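[Help] Beginner question about ligand-bound structures

Sorry if this is basic. My supervisor gave me a protein sequence and a SMILES string for S-adenosylmethionine and asked me to "get the holo structure". I don't really know what that means in practice or what format the answer should be in. Inputs are pasted below exactly as I got them.
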Amino acid sequence: MEATIVSDNVKHYPVLLKEIISVITPQHGGTFIDCTLGNGGYTNEILKYKNTKIIGIDRDTKTEIIVRKIQKNFPDRFLFKNIKFSKLNNLKLKKENIKGVIFDLGYSTTQIKDPEKGLSFNSMGELNMKMGLNDFSADDVVNSLDARDLEKIFKFYGDENDAKIISKNIARERTLHKIDTPKLVKIIEKSKRRRNHKIHCATKTFQALRIFVNKEISELIYGLINSVKILKKEGILAVVTFHSLEDKIVKYFFKNLSENKSISRYEPKLDQKDIYFEMPLKKPILPTREEVQNNPPSRSAKLRYLIKKKDVYQIETDIIEKFKNLLEIENLSSKL
Ligand SMILES: C[S@@+](CC[C@H](N)C(=O)[O-])C[C@H]1O[C@@H](n2cnc3c(N)ncnc32)[C@H](O)[C@@H]1O
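Answer (accepted):
No worries, everyone starts somewhere. Holo just means with the ligand present. The predicted complex, written as structure tokens, is below.
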């Protein structure tokens, strides 16, 4: 799992950039969708290749400065949409010749350094964690949801073993005063029964809150479903994940679309479905030792990719059913 502490002088390094380029092969030209534009690391690299076009997406309006720079350099080959990637289908791309869709999940170094966003547990002020186009903040969650709901969020989105005690302590403390970022870190420090010296004790709780506030589970699931629909034959879906929950979802989706597992050994023909995708590598591509040395947060990155083998729009998948429990946790926000 990625540590959330990033010092101020950290440069932005697009993670697994060489590997992304070798997977999507922009040297042959084509239209690509960069679903997580961020600082434009991938987009700028792809646009260096002639005959490429990019549709860039980011939920954060603060990408504006980056967007303007790219638009100035590539006025005819770059288009930006400030939307959430789960809404990819609203862009009406069914007829476009989309050669690749890329996701680099999570937050950028610029976002974590932004004190207003409050994504880091070094942040001083109010809890926030909104990446952009959100309905509520971490402040609403921590200061309003009851202890049982908080426990579910910390346990299922953060895999936090001490979810129960942290939630109880939050509920007790907020009867005395409002909880901001430093106070939440203190509560977690006091609640943890065992210390893991490799990661900060607040990492898991902060990850869980960020996932909940940004509805990252439904974002990812609907983003994946919509992107495989619009890809054309031989098109590539490439996803970089940063924590095990994201990777579990991506791995399941890719396997589900590229394998025809028989449920029954006696009637194998009955549950055969059409397979339109190929997953060339079963294992993810990881950063090299050199990349991790230059950019330590890249150590948790995993790149998986899928190739579409037929031009079809309707894709059958049971991913929503499979991750129903995780999706249902998002409904707790209706109590806010
Ligand atoms: C890790 S950064 C991407 C960095 C980028 N690959 C680069 O090279 O600069 C992730 C970006 O995705 C954006 N993002 C995260 N979830 C999103 C979503 N559901 N919809 C749209 N953008 C999202 C974040 O705002 C952030 O800017």
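A couple of things worth pointing out: Residues 14, 36, 38-42, 57-60, 63, 84-85, 104, 106-108, 111, 131-132, 219 surround S-adenosylmethionine (CB under 6 Å). Residues 131 and 246 are 17 Å apart (CA to CA). Feel free to follow up in the thread.
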